[in-house]
TrEMBL record:
Phylogenetic classification of the source organism: Bacteria, Bacillati, Actinomycetota, Actinomycetes, Micrococcales
Protein name according to UniProt: Oxidoreductase molybdopterin binding domain-containing protein
One Pfam family here: Oxidored_molyb
Domain Oxidoreductase molybdopterin-binding: 35-178
Region (Disordered) residue spans: 1-23
Length: 196
């Protein structure tokens, strides 16, 4: 069962070149979830990277926050057609977490609660993706994926997995939850890659 919040009554601004085709601007931050909101304590939270070699590399909450934390201002775009411009986040770049992880051109991102999505590794590196821990100057709220979510702002927001737990490095692309249910394997909002 999907959970949907207020915020879907957005408006289109044709003149804004930051708004991808088919998107509408919202000032709210709508919530859409495929199931109940998990509650994860930072004392037990961990981020896991599983390499092609099967080796698990893990970071506790404190270990994650000991890495350099970036401040990110970016636009986000949901496949349900809303966009929110100029959002403010803080998080740890995936560049730090993947630098010693070995090979694999693809990833399967997995979350507390069982959600998965696929993201090419190239879309997680080069300063393009973060493990976000704050939104708008506050710790990330559970309904928005707290304590930590993946943030991949150049793709539709379903790729920015809430309640992120880790990722598996893969040799070939494999669909995640929404991709198995008809969503596009990549999800570029500028090409309107919403569905298969």
């Amino acid at each position: 069962m999907a959970v949907i919040s207020r915020g879907f009554g957005a408006r289109r601004r044709e003149s804004d070149d930051r708004l991808p085709p088919g998107q509408y601007l919202t000032e709210d931050f709508p919530v859409l979830s495929a199931g109940p909101t998990p509650r994860i304590d930072t004392d037990t939270w961990e981020f896991v990277v599983v390499g092609l070699d099967g080796i698990r590399r893990t970071w506790s909450w404190d270990e994650l926050l000991a890495l350099p934390v970036d401040t990110i201002t970016t636009d986000i775009h949901c496949v349900t057609r809303w966009s929110k411009l100029g959002t403010h986040w803080r998080g740890v770049s995936l560049d730090h977490l993947l630098q010693d992880a070995g090979g694999g051109d693809f990833t399967r991102v997995f979350s507390y609660g069982g959600y998965t999505t696929n993201v090419p590794r190239a879309d997680l590196t080069g300063g393009k993706a973060w493990i976000a821990v704050e939104f708008d100057g506050q710790p990330l709220a559970p309904e928005h994926g707290g304590p930590a979510r993946l943030l991949v702002p150049h793709l539709y927001f379903w790729k920015s997995a809430k309640w992120v737990h880790g990722l598996d490095l893969l040799e070939k692309d494999e669909p995640g939850f929404w991709e198995q249910n008809g969503y596009n394997m990549y999800g570029d909002p500028w090409k309107e890659e919403r569905y298969w």
